[in-house]
Every structure is written in C-alpha cells, then in structure tokens.
C-alpha cells in the first residue's frame, strides 16, 4: 500500500508539472482539437479538388514543386512562430504533424494524375459511350453510367470482383462533382480526393490509437510522424482503388478493439461490428483483424464463465449475438450475392501461368525464405515486375513500400544514390522495428510491471496489468497474422504483384505503436527508468532507431520531390 501511495503522488506531481509547462492550447477541450483537425483536413481536400481544375494542375512539374515548396516554407514559419511565442504544446505539435502530412498528401495528388502510380486502375470512356471498362475506374464508371451494381459475373471483368463500398462512395462523389458543374474529365480526376481524405483520416486514427495506449510526448510524435510521412501512405493517398479505405477501416478496427479492451461494453461491440462489416464490403481482407479480436473475445468470455454469474453470462451471450447479427449481414453480403447470382466463391482472378509475374515455378524458400544478398539488388532498389528478375516476397515488399511498382529509366545519379541509401536503411530499420514491437509488447504483458495491485507505473499514467496483457496479445497476434495471411496470399496467388506492400500497409500502424511504446519505455524520465547498463543501452538503441526513422522519412520526401516521373 505504501508503494502505491508513492506512485500516486508521483503521478499527480508529473501531471501538475505537465500542466504548468504545457498548458492546453487555448484551453480547448479534446473534442475541439478533434474538430479543428477534421475541419482542416476537409478544407485542404476541397482546396485540392478545386486546384485540380485550375491551370496549376497542368503547369510543369518543377513549377508545382516550387509553389508547394513556398507552402512548406510558410508552414515552417508558422512552426517557428508557435515555438517562439510559447504556443507549441502537445496538442499544437500533433496538429502541426498532421497538417504537414495533409500538405504532403495534397501536394502528391496535385503532382500526380489519375493514371500515375495506380494499381489495377483501368480506364473510363465517359457517359457518352456504352462501353463497360475494366479496372477500378471502370467499375466506378459502370455504377456512374447505369446507376446500379454490375449485373455481370464480377470475375469476368478485371477488378469487378472487389466488394463495392469504395466504388459506390466514389460514384456519389462523381455525381456531386457533376451536379456542381464540374466537367466529366475533372470529376474523374477528382476521384483521387476520396483516398486523399481516407489517408488523412488514417493519421487522425493513428494518433487516437497512440493516445489510447497512453503514449505521450516524443513517443507520440515519432509514432504519428512515421504514419504521416511514410511514402506508402502518401502514394496511396492518390490511388483510386479501394486500398486506402480498407486501411482506414483496419485502423478503426485496431482503435475500437483497444477501446473495447478497456471498457468491455455493448456500444464498443457495435462499433467494432460496423468497422469490420464495412471493412469487409470494401475489401475482404479486412476480416483478418477479426482473428486477434476473437482471441480477446474468447479470453473475456472465459473470464465471464469463471465468475459463475448466470445473469452476467446471459448478458454477454446476448451482446456477442448482437455483434454477430450486425457484422455478418454487412460483411458477408457481397459473398452471398455472388454465390446466389453467379455461383462464384470468393477469390481473385489470375493472369495465368504465361504471365511474366508468375512465381509458382520457384520454390517456397525462394519466394518466402530469407533473401540472399543478391536478391535485394541494392544497386537498383526498384521492383522489376518480372518473376525472373525478382521473386522473393520480402524483397518485393520492401521495394514497393518505398517506391511502389516504379522501375525508373532516367534517374539522376544523385537521386539513385539517395534511393540506395534509403532502401538499405528501410530494410535494416524495418527488421529492427519488427523486433522492437515484440519487445515492447512482451514488456507490457509481463507481471513484473504490474505493481502490487495489478497496476503498472508508466510516465504519468497507471495501466491495468490485465489491460496491458490483452493489448499485447491483440497487437502482437494481429501483426503476426497479417504477415502470415500475406504469405498465404502469395502462395495461393503466385504472382509478383501479390507481394506488393499495399496488401500489408496496415502494418505501418503496428510500427508506429512500436516506436511510441519504445520511446515510452526506454526514453522515459530518468526517475522512472530502470538503472543499470542495460537500461542505458536500451535508451541509446532507441535514439538510434528514432534518428534512423527520421532520416528514412526525410530522404523519401526528397526523392519524391525531385523525381521526374509524374
């Protein structure tokens, strides 16, 4: 009891100091900060849509870069103004990180056209024709032309097998553009605005995830910055397919799961059911996160059974039934539709064994084993598409995580060197942060950090031991299952395109969590840190990781700013 009293006193002292040195931004309530961020995101997305209809969109690449550079200089001026005026506190730093992420995404969309760095985009021919075009753009155009879901077998036309939520929302956005007098070509160009919005909202959800995990200060900033400035999330902000909306729903599933672990209530179950259900009718692989969630459900239900309270048991049986009644009709609706109308089971149409992307001719070890040094091709770290040139899944994953499926022809020597350095750092720190995630989650679950009353002392917060254990199980299981499902997907559909990083891009959220928790545990105030050489070594190692991540993000931004391929 004496120890707990000291812990409580330390907690109150730290909170008081935090309030004195970091006063709330204008005394705003959290919901006001949330509204400010959401309003800013919407305003910039609308401004980007308007800018695409101006002469700026058709100006030379370096003219666009110059204009956008001026915006970033103005942003830097705002940052220093807040710093010097003493207004740069926790909330304003988060706002400025998200604002810079929004500027980067808007800049990318303005620099790239509808067909740049897309995946399975297809094409459109407009309302004036009765053509049915393939790809995601063709899928959206079909709904736009005929005002209904495709009544053909979705496996007979490429990309039509995808669940329709993203394409239906895109159709409504197209209709709104046309109603406002936007030309058809510009309306289709503006299809990029929706993924732009989704990508921006992913930053907000990541911030909320880090806050739920009680990550603050440096851990919060580096974790959020990683998600905000990683090149994959910026490139996908301009993609017109359903990947970005899928990642947004998966981020929401992680957030709502962590909230439910703390609250264990029916309203949380309903939110989770809606997130999983709508995620599944955006892209079926959203259901992967239901596996780690089901483990948490099972753990909780076992604990309810052990209490031997009949009323409580019936209550939770009812709650879980409500969850199933909500998620099943929404999430399985597309599968059931295709089974009834066309007799088609879930799957992905494949290009066939004659495709240069076909990898089944190579052994499982060549495709999924540890890559040899020559497999990485560090001298030219881009995805060559052909399986003959590169067929290892992990190499392709790292290639496409930084540079999508680009294979540049005319790249300057300076940019190539920068790409080589960035790629090597990405591989090294990608492996390190995966181990960091396991280390911090195991630490969070260990009883030795549980205190005498099942509480764990952390910088400024007290965390329940059971909550920490469930956090760790959910997050670590989710990360491992994501990688296993990715490997299974590559085996079932043996093509190099199956190894694209976009299929596991949600893993960036897990790495953000690893960075946040790593800073929380290993770089916490000296009074809360463990003594000894090992603790100091952990702190040094965490500093190296932080700086490595910052260098990767800065170098990636420079590469894309001066890359002539637009």
UniProtKB/TrEMBL annotation:
Coiled-coil intervals, chain numbering: none
Superkingdom as given in the UniProt entry: Bacteria
Write out the transmembrane intervals: 61-81, 93-115, 219-238, 319-336, 414-442, 473-495, 501-523, 544-563
Q: Which InterPro entries match?
A: RgtA/B/C-like
Start and end residues of each Glycosyltransferase RgtA/B/C/D-like domain: 179-329
User: Which Pfam families does the record cross-reference, listed alphabetically?
Assistant: PMT_2
Give yes or no: UniProt keyword Magnesium.
no
Q: Which UniProt keywords apply?
A: Membrane, Transmembrane, Transmembrane helix
The entry's protein name is Glycosyltransferase RgtA/B/C/D-like domain-containing protein
